Amino acid sequence: MTCAASYLIAAIVLLAGCAKQSAEQSVEQTVQDTGFALIAQDSTSIRFPDGLRGKTLVVGFIYTHCAGVCEIITSTMKRIAHQIQDTNIVFVELTFDPERDTPSHLLEYAALHGLDEAVKNGRWMFLTGNTHIVDSLMQRYDIITQKTYTTLTETGEKVYFIDHTDRICLIDARGGVCKEYEGSSVEPETVRDALKHIASNQPY
Question: Within 10 A of 2 (CB to CB), how many other CB atoms are there?
Fold first, then answer.
């Protein structure tokens, strides 16, 4: 190979690397400017958390096929909601399993947990979205997930479970994370007291 050819290949590799970096920076800047493009349980689009600016958010990270920790997280969030009457506080459950957690499935999950009315009046939301966007969102909030495939159904569909970070976080009206808790063990009263400080803009 001639020196000229070697330089040409090196230049192409360098340009490709720069283009990739530029694209990643562009995506990152878009997220910073507009938030993550997600889909709510009623199939409407929303930017998270930007589309909820002005609200204090209680956010749980779940997937609906989870029979353990996620059920506890949802139950804990319900207990918190019962102790908080402030309509400026919104409860949000973000799925990291968009492949199965479609909007219609999230609606079924809401009904199963007696959250129909809370969803209708806007006090509770379930969010899913494009797999790549959801993955980026989980990285942003330091949520680690790991799929474990277990078997195949009669139709050949893979059955899997997801090991994941156990977390509930509080996001203030400006979109910043204020507090984080282990979702399956935190006492609802602890979160309630933190919400009162955050919602009233008092230092916590």
Answer: 7
